[in-house]
Write a structure and sequence with these properties.
Blueprint (H helix, E strand, L loop, with lengths): L1 H14 L1 H29 L11 E10 L2 E5 L6 H8 L3 E9 L6 E7 L2 E7 L5 E4 L3 H4 L4 E3 L11 E5 H7 L5 H4 L3 E4 L3 E9 L12 E4 L8 H4 L12 E7 L5 H15 L4 E3 L2 E9 H4 L15 H28 L5 H9 L4 H33 L17 H26 L3 H5 L6 H41 L9 E5 L7 H12 L4 E7 L10 E6 L8 E7 L4 H4 L4 E4 L11 E4 H6 L12 E4 L2 E9 L14 E4 L7 E6 L6 H17 L8 E2 H7 L2 H35 L1 H9 L4 H35 L10 H27 L3 H6 L2
Helix pairs in contact: 2-10, 2-12, 2-21, 10-13, 10-15, 10-21, 12-13, 15-21, 15-23, 15-24, 16-19, 21-24, 23-24
């Protein structure tokens, strides 16, 4: 039985090579997309699944409002963890997590030739200060030391195995215990434990753990603001593990009662407050509102969008299969009639046709499996770090492909199987296999499926164009400052000598190729930000709000070409003595005209400082966010960032020479430090990495969907021409021109493409409108974009049609009619 089944299937495939190739190609594209997207989605959704009692672990985050403006923070005031331990109930574990501030340099003594020489490891990532309870959250395997005592005392450190091998490559694990590591020449810690690397997808990615008690014994007590309740740093976070059965809402209430106890201004009214909120562990990897320090996030809507893309591509491939199989049914009618006459039942025929579909799908699955490593490399920019294709270690890949093959075979093959198995043997053998009503019904179904294909393709085309248009708008629009030919770099924060920075700035100013040099805070638009509480001294009520604070020397505004609308620039100073404010802040303070704000006083850190100027608004973030209130001042001693405007030129070679000279000056003062710089326009481009990746993925999805749709269209055209060959030849003999023939053959298909556009356009408009709502500043949705996309799809369809229609129109009719 099975031998006969395989023979029949392969004969059918061999007899219809073109249709078989089209089906396998379409299915391969759909299955390949589904496999890669499955790997990505499975990888991202697999985050934070290894933690012990993960459903009871929460991160303490903050929700805020300042004059009705919402804010969110993953960081919390540093003394919170101690207060929870001492005053809260229903909490099983409290885990403070302080990220190491700045760049960490670790010095380790290594014995070489009988003398101890320190091995220096610069810019070490993933170092945290925490307590012993950290290890109760995660299933660490201890290679040396114990979780109870290793971080109990100050100046103790636990290392992951990978970090231990980096620091002590030739030492045995047990011999590393007791070794000492010096951090930034500030303090020395003793290794008290070694744990095996988790090698799992988790939000807890540290590999070097310094005892939390160390902070209180060093200057970090002030650096981390360990006794400050009304301010916090991005480095500070707290996790808690609730006791079994504890109510989350009651725990949140306890935390906010503690907050209100130590910070009387935590809650003023419903428009001005700061509140703690417990964020569940499984939300941390996906919630951008509470983006943690150096935390990699995934975007759930994007993942769902990827799943939709995979589903669409599979649907397109299934539609192709259904269309081509039903259109090609006539070639198998006699075979079906003979099989039924010989005793085959309808059930056996359905099994035969579904089996053939399954064979084609399995073939497509094998091709996709072989292509997966290549595709992962090709789309490396979209693949999450750590995602690998290792099928022997990932048996679920085989299960997914098998399940996918069954589902696709069922969706693709069921309708054609019932159509083919339903032929009456008497009609078939009398060459009456197609009654008018049946063929009309099947043709109508094929048209609906073809329109569905082109609706999806049109939607992707319009979406791709609009997303690309918004990205171009964001990158090229005026952000309120100069962004071309500007490079930025920073000097080590460990350098406390301000004269070093002054010398470096002076040297840079005198380098050929440098137009302007400035020292200050970050560039006008960057991922970092500093906020402070400021109020207008002239107000009758308490109007204190969170305002963004930026600073720089007197060249800062000139370098970035930020215009002053009223007043003057700030004067050079090592302390904050006066403010420039932006237009938005001036308006929020009630000044209709910029000049009205001049001379007014702002309350800042217990002092009243004058407003000396109002500057033009600039976007300090991406276009996703509106411009907020901002103040600018001079603060020379607190500046570690350098900004350089390069001289314009036609080629980039001289820029390289200028940057090389800047690097020499830098190394003259900081010989042991690495020099790294970045162009401002590249920094801004990174704001839209997610959108750029979305546009690129949409581009691929568009190309594939159009390709699959055109494959199906090509197959239907081939079938139509084959069934209308006699009609075409007779028309040509009666005087029809090539143009007439092409028009007759193409008319129906062009109508289907136009109907698809009419359906796709409003759907695409709605989807783009909702997507653009995420941008505070966005491009317009113009009607001509839709018209252009529709015309483009029509041209693609006509080109596809012309491949076969022109060939049929110019064929010699005599050859065909001789065979009749």
């Amino acid at each position: 039985m099975f031998n006969n089944f395989f023979k029949t299937a392969f004969r059918v495939f061999a007899r219809n090579k073109a249709f078989t190739a089209i089906n396998i190609l379409g299915l391969s594209i759909g299955v390949s997309a589904a496999l890669i997207i499955f790997l990505i989605v499975q990888f991202e959704l697999g985050y934070d699944k290894i933690e012990t009692n993960a459903d009871r672990i929460y991160r303490v985050v903050m929700d805020m409002k300042f004059n009705g403006n919402e804010g969110h923070s993953a960081a919390v005031p540093a003394p919170l963890s101690a207060a929870i331990q001492n005053e809260a109930t229903g909490v099983e574990a409290v885990v403070p997590l302080m990220q190491f501030q700045g760049d960490a340099t670790a010095k380790v003594s290594v014995v070489k030739a009988g003398s101890a020489q320190p091995a220096v490891f610069k810019k070490q990532p993933d170092i945290v200060f925490t307590n012993p309870q950290y290890f109760s959250l995660l299933p660490f395997k201890w290679l040396a030391g114990s979780p109870e005592s290793s971080l109990k005392d100050p100046f103790h450190v636990v290392l992951a195995e990978s970090r231990a091998k980096q620091y002590f490559p030739s030492a045995n694990i047990n011999d590393i215990i007791g070794k000492q590591i010096k951090y930034n020449d500030d303090f020395t810690a003793t290794v008290t434990g070694i744990v095996k690397d988790l090698n799992a997808r988790t939000s807890f990615n540290a590999v070097e753990f310094i005892s939390f008690a160390t902070i209180a014994q060093t200057h970090m007590q002030d650096d981390f603001m360990m006794n400050v309740w009304n301010d916090w740093m991005a480095y500070s976070s707290v996790y808690i593990k609730l006791a079994a059965g504890t109510d989350i809402s009651s725990s949140e209430k306890q935390l906010n009662d503690i907050f209100n106890k130590y910070n009387k201004n935590a809650y003023k009214d419903d428009l001005n407050y700061q509140r703690f909120h417990l964020e569940s562990l499984n939300d941390i990897h996906f919630n951008a509102l509470y983006a943690g320090f150096n935390q990699r996030l995934a975007h759930k809507p994007t993942l769902y969008g990827l799943l939709a893309v995979a589903a669409f591509l599979l649907i397109l491939a299934c539609i192709n299969f259904i269309n081509l199989t039903t259109a090609n049914a006539a070639s198998r009618a006699k075979e079906i009639g003979i099989r039924k006459t010989m005793g085959s039942s309808k059930k056996q025929l359905i099994f035969q046709f579904l089996g053939e579909t399954f064979l084609l799908t399995i073939t497509a699955g094998i091709i996709s499996f072989c292509l997966a490593p290549v595709l992962l490399k090709l789309f490396a920019d979209f693949i999450p770090p750590g995602l690998k294709f290792q099928p022997l270690r990932q048996p679920y890949i085989f299960l997914f492909l098998l399940l996918l093959a069954v589902v696709v075979s069922f969706l693709s093959g069921l309708y054609p199987a019932f159509i083919l198995s339903g032929y009456k043997p008497v009609r078939v053998l009398k060459n009456q296999s197609f009654s008018f009503s049946n063929e009309t019904r099947h043709a109508w179904i094929r048209k609906v499926l073809t329109v569905s294909q082109f609706v999806i393709a049109q939607f992707f085309i319009i979406a791709t164009v609009m997303v690309s248009r918004q990205i171009n708008y964001s990158l090229n629009a005026d952000m309120g400052f100069r962004k071309d030919a500007v490079i930025s770099f920073n000097v080590p924060r460990t350098d406390s000598a301000a004269d070093h920075r002054a010398v470096l700035l002076n040297e840079i100013k005198h380098i050929a190729g440098v137009q302007i040099a400035s020292m200050g805070f970050l560039t006008p638009a960057d991922k970092g930000a500093a906020f402070t509480s400021i109020s207008y001294a002239g107000a009758t009520n308490d109007n204190k709000e969170s305002v963004q604070l930026r600073w720089g020397d007197t060249n800062y505004l000139k370098l970035f070409n930020i215009k002053i609308l009223a007043g003057r620039n700030v004067q050079q100073s090592d302390t904050i003595k006066e403010f420039l404010i932006n237009e938005t802040y001036a308006k929020s303070l009630g000044f209709k005209h910029p000049e009205n704000a001049l001379g007014k006083l702002l309350d800042f850190n217990g002092r009243r400082l004058p407003i000396v100027g109002v500057m033009h608004d600039f976007n300090e973030q991406s276009f996703h966010a509106e411009v907020g209130p901002l103040v600018f001042s001079s603060l020379g001693s607190g500046s570690y960032f350098f900004h350089v405007l390069l001289q314009p030129q036609a080629a980039g070679a001289s820029w390289q020479n200028t940057i090389a000279q800047i690097q020499k000056s830098y190394h003259r003062l900081y010989p042991e430090e690495d020099f790294s710089y970045k162009f401002l326009d590249e920094t801004i481009a990174k704001f839209y990495e997610t959108e750029q990746r979305t546009a690129s993925l949409l581009g691929w999805a568009t190309g594939l969907s159009v390709f699959i749709s055109c494959l199906g269209l090509l197959g239907l055209v081939m079938y139509t021409i084959n069934t209308r060959t006699k009609e075409i030849d007779i028309r040509k003999i009666l005087g029809a021109t090539v143009t007439n023939i092409i028009s007759i053959l193409s008319k129906d298909f062009v109508q289907l493409v136009l109907v698809a556009f009419v359906i796709a356009a409003p759907v695409a408009w709605w989807a783009i409108y909702k997507w653009l709502e995420d941008f505070a500043y966005r491009t317009a949705i113009s009607w001509w974009i839709f018209a252009l996309c529709g015309f483009g799809m029509l041209m693609i369809a006509l080109i596809t049609l012309s491949v076969q229609t022109i060939k049929a129109a110019i064929a010699n009719p005599v050859k065909s009619l001789r065979t009749e």
